[in-house]
Amino acid sequence: MSKHSINGKVVLIAGGVKNLGGLLARDLAQQGAKAVVVHYNSASSQGDANATAAALEALGTQAVVLQADLTTAGAVEKLFSDAVAAVGRPDIAINTVGKVLKKPMAEITEAEYDEMMAVNSKTAFFFLKEAGKHLNDNGKICTIVTSLLGAFTPFYAAYAGSKAPVEQFTRAAAKELGARGISVTAVGPGPMDTPFFYPAEGQDAVNYHKTAAALSPFSRTGLTDIEDVVPFIRNLVSDGWWVTGQTILINGGYTTK
Ligand SMILES: NC(=O)c1ccc[n+]([C@@H]2O[C@H](COP(=O)([O-])OP(=O)(O)OC[C@H]3O[C@@H](n4cnc5c(N)ncnc54)[C@H](OP(=O)(O)O)[C@@H]3O)[C@@H](O)[C@H]2O)c1
């Protein structure tokens, strides 16, 4: 078993039962992961959790499903300790947890601000902390952020602003864990064609993203397919381990930095 291959490794994915996280879970199982622990939060994700677990088992990978709201440090610690109890220390930990809010700053309430910070920022911080404590040496950690970190655009102050600290958390964790061979990265997809994208956007914005070829130099829709993001993350958490401390935008040229 090579130090950096996925074959035979233990994987933990927060938000791992559907959309980007669900595809990542299936992909890493296809690469030969020994066990994949997939987390979900909402009761409405239970069906996706069952389907993902069945898909992983069909690929010969041990599947463990854990449910939690991860907005407290204790919940993130429990996620990792339950995963270790079930399948041993992870080699790869990926955090896809996120929540979007599109609103002018003047309309954002204190409760909405606090929720954005809790889901996008606090969860990511404690995920990195617990991953550092629980991962095997030569492990890989990746957090999903957003391509809005490279954008100059209104209405995403709370969403992009609560993902932005992850860039600095990633740098710090990469420095602190590097001596153990652990790489730490963040990936910011472009607006992805998943149910996450649509509720926060008005119809005008959806139409714009779907039709504006100018959003990508590739002259196609500006929306990113999760199938175009997964191979990059797969590489970062395996042979691409030499990339560390960095936040990389995967978006067909939608935004850059
Ligand atoms: N889709 C886009 O346009 C887009 C673009 C750029 C970046 N992103 C980022 O990409 C990531 C994945 O998004 P996606 O499109 O694949 O949608 P998604 O499946 O809805 O991903 C969001 C995940 O966050 C989880 N989550 C939300 N609140 C939580 C909480 N309090 N505790 C624990 N988990 C919680 C959700 O679980 P439950 O649903 O079970 O609550 C879900 O698994 C997110 O971080 C998002 O910010 C998305």
UniProtKB/TrEMBL annotation:
Transmembrane segments: none annotated. One of its GO terms (molecular function) is oxidoreductase activity, acting on CH-OH group of donors. Residues 9-190 form the Ketoreductase domain. InterPro entries: KR_dom, NAD(P)-bd_dom_sf, SDR_fam. Keywords: Oxidoreductase. Belongs to the short-chain dehydrogenases/reductases (SDR) family. This is NAD(P)-dependent dehydrogenase, short-chain alcohol dehydrogenase family. It comes from Pseudomonas palleroniana.
